[in-house]
Design goal:
This protein is α+β, with helices and mostly antiparallel strands. The chain has seven helices and four strands. Strand 2, helix 5 and strand 3 form a beta-alpha-beta unit.
């Protein structure tokens, strides 16, 4: 009788502990399968890539260019876009361009600042080679201080390895 009671008590405690553990796990908030920041960035970039030069000049918005890990080489897909940016800048002399380099969280702070600046400088160099006046382009290197997402998956890190581009009509001497 004592053995049967001990057995039932043990089973009850084990089942109670399992139910309690399951309830605790269900209360933990979980990341969505797709990070909404990454989805929003992809959606915005797709629309911005398909702008005409006139739309670029009116909206002043440009898509981000995403880089491979530990690379300053501008991706091949970006060259048609950069050619369009150069065309707009040559046609609209009042436009200036801001290039903001960013990195993922891997690497030291010093290296990431250098890498983000080198990525933006590579884009500036390409645009200058296409006839854009270098004085109309400013570079800001942010390293890993301005992430799009905190997701450390390969997709999340790719979203953070980027150069953001934006046109402005303000004169450099007045604000920069």
């Amino acid at each position: 009788m004592k053995l049967k009671t001990l057995f039932l008590l043990t089973i009850t405690l084990v089942l109670g502990a399992c139910a309690s553990q399951q309830r605790e796990e269900e209360e933990i908030p979980r990341m969505p399968a797709e990070d909404p920041n990454i989805v929003a960035l992809d959606t915005a970039n797709y629309k911005l890539y398909n702008q005409t030069p006139a739309q670029m000049a009116r909206s002043l918005k440009l898509p981000s260019i995403h880089y491979d890990f530990d690379s300053i080489r501008t991706p091949e897909y970006a060259y048609p876009l950069l050619d369009k940016v150069a065309l707009v800048m040559k046609e609209y002399e009042s436009l200036h361009l801001i290039l903001q380099g960013n990195c993922d969280s891997l690497g030291t702070d010093e290296y990431n600042y250098w890498l983000s600046g080198a990525r933006a400088a590579a884009i500036k160099s390409y645009l200058v080679s296409r006839g854009v006046n270098a004085e109309r382009i400013r570079i800001h290197a942010y390293g890993n201080t301005r992430p799009i997402t905190l997701d450390q998956s390969p997709e999340g890190r790719l979203a953070n390895r980027r150069v953001d581009m934006q046109f402005t009509v303000r004169q450099w001497k007045s604000i920069y």
